[in-house]
User: What shape does this take?
Amino acid sequence: MSGVKLKGVRKVYPNGAEAIRGVDMDIKSGEMIVFVGPSGCGKSTLLRMVAGLEGISGGDISIGDRVINDVSPSERDVAMVFQNYALYPHMSVRGNMSYGLQNRKMPKAEIDQKVTDAAKMLKIDAYLDRQPNELSGGQRQRVAMGRAIVRDPQVFLFDEPLSNLDAKLRVQMRIEIKKLQRRMNVTSIYVTHDQTEAMTLADRLAVINNGLVEQMGAPMELYTDPKTLFVASFIGAPQINLIPVKFDGSTLNCGSLKLSGFSGLPENTELVLGVRPDVLAPNNAGQFKMRVDLVEQHGGENLVYGALDGVTNDDGDELEICMKAGKDMLPDLDSNLTLNFDPSTAFVFRKDTGERLI
Amino acid sequence: MNRTPISTHVILICGAIFMTLPVWVAFATSTHSAETILRDGLQFWPGGHFIETYNEVLFVAGGVMKKVTAMEMLKNSLILGIGFAVGKVIISMLAAYAIVYFRFRLAVPLFWVIFMTLLLPLEVRIIPSYKVVADLGMLDTRAGLIIPLIASATGTFFFRQFFKSVPDELLEAARLDGATAWGFFKDILVPLSKTMIAAILIIMFVVGWNQYLWPLIMTTKEENYTLVIGIKQIYQVLNEGGELPQFQKAFALTILATLPPVMVVLVFQKWFVKGLVESEK
Assistant: This one.
C-alpha cells in the first residue's frame, strides 16, 4: 500500500478557467480522505486528476514514490467508483467485475477466484450471472465496488458513489464502505458534497472551495477549530448561526444587539460572529432574544428556529437563527426566548477574508 | 386493454387490402399460363401453373434470361444487399467512433462534410463514380458493385447520435479497466449498439436490394444481373423471337424480388421491438 502526494497541483482549462489553483496534500497509506465542498468547487476535478481522467496543468501527483502525471489511467493502479455506477449494461455482474482483469491478461482461474472472493465480501455472489438492469440501486453500487476491489489497487477513488441511493440505503452503504475500507486498509479518496457523509467516513477531511483546500484535518478538528468562515459554515448540521457584527472596543454590536465577553478584535472592521446551534441554551440572563418561528422535531432532539430580535441581515430581513434543544423543549410559536452562550465557544471571522480571529 | 371500435378495424382492413392487392394480383397472375394472361388479362385467382412457372424461372437456364436463372440473380442480389448493408454498418460505425471519441483537428467540420453528402444522391456522382470504378478495372465485379456505395452519411449520423448518448462514465470506467481504443469499441460500444446495428442493417439491406441505377450501369454480363435488373430486362428478352410474351414469368420474378426484403423485415422485427421496449442504458 502506498500514500498519495499532491504537490502544487493546478488545473487550467483551455478557455483559461482555473479549476484547481495549487493544491498540496499528503495522504498517508491506508488513510481515508474525503474531499468535501459545494458543487463546482473542483473536488471532482481533483479526484479525476488523480485517476488520470483529467490532465494535470501544473504540479505533481505521486502514488507511493512514483510520479504519475503522465501515466495512463489503467497503469496508475487506481480503481474508481462512479456516481452513476458506470456498469457495462450488456455484461453480467461477473463480466463487469472481470473485464479489467481480462484486459490485464490475468489467467482465467485467477480472475474467477478474485471475482468470487470479492462477490462474497460484498454479498453479491448470488447475482453474479445477472445483468445490471436486473439489480437494485444498492446492488449495482456493490457491483461497482466489486469491480474496484478485484483489481487490488493501491488507491480507491469514490466519486459521490452514494448520491443516487435513497436515504436509508445511503446510510447503510456508508457504514459498509467504511468497514470495507478499514478491512482492506487501502488508501482512499472519497468525494462528496454531503457533509454528514464526509464527517462520518473521513479519517481526514479536505474542505475544498474555489479550487483551493480551505482546511484539512480530522472531522472533529474542522468542527471545533475551523480556520475560515467557509469551513465553519460548511461543516456542521444544522448550519452554524452567522451574525454580522462590528467591534467597538468592548462589545460586539449588531443593530440593537450588544454582546460582551469579547476582546482583542479589530475595530471598525466588518466581522462575522459564528455560534453553533448546540452551544445555545435558554437562559434568562442571556444576550440573544429570539421569536420562535418553527420547531423541527427530529425525535431525539428539537431544532428551534426563530428571528433574532433587533438584528437584520444585509437585505434588511430578519436574521434567522437555530438552536439545538432537547426533545422536551417545545416552545410555542411566536413566543419569545432568551438564549445564552459561552463566548469562548463562539468564533469570530473577518468578513472580507473569511479568516478566523477568535 | 380497451376494445378497439369496429370502425378502426374497417379502416385498417381497407388500408391493408389496398396496399396488398396489387401484390396479390401479381402473384395470382404469375400462376397462370401465358395464353390465359394474353387472352383474359390480369388474374385475380391463382391458376394451375405455379410449380411449372416458378421452377422454370428459378432453375432452368434460358427459362427467364438467355443463360442465367433467377436463382443466380437472387444470389447476386443477396450479395449486393448483404455486402451493401454490412459494409455500410462497418464504415459508418468506425467513422462515427472516430468523430465522437477521438479529439482531432477538423473533427467537427469533417462531420459536417460527411453530413452534407446526404444532400447529394448517387445520381449526382454516378458518372465520376463510374469513371473511377472503370479505371480501377472493377466493372462487372462484385467489389465494384458494392464498394462505391458503402460510405453512408445516414449511418454515420445515426451512430454518431447513438454514441453521443452513451454515458461518458462508461468510457472512463473502461479506461481505468485498461481497455484500449479498439477494446472499448469491440467490447463496449458494439454490444451496446446491437439494436441500432440491426435497425440499420435492415434498412440498408432493403435499400441495397432495391438498387437499380448503379447495378444497371455497372453490370454488362448477364451472370452479374441482380433481380431488380432482371425484372427490367425480362420484358426485352421475352419480347424477342416472336413468341408469346411470358408475362407470368415477369410476375414470378417480381414476386421473388420482393420476398427477401419482406423476410428480413419479418425476422428482424423482434429486434426492432426489443430495441424500442428495452432501454439498456
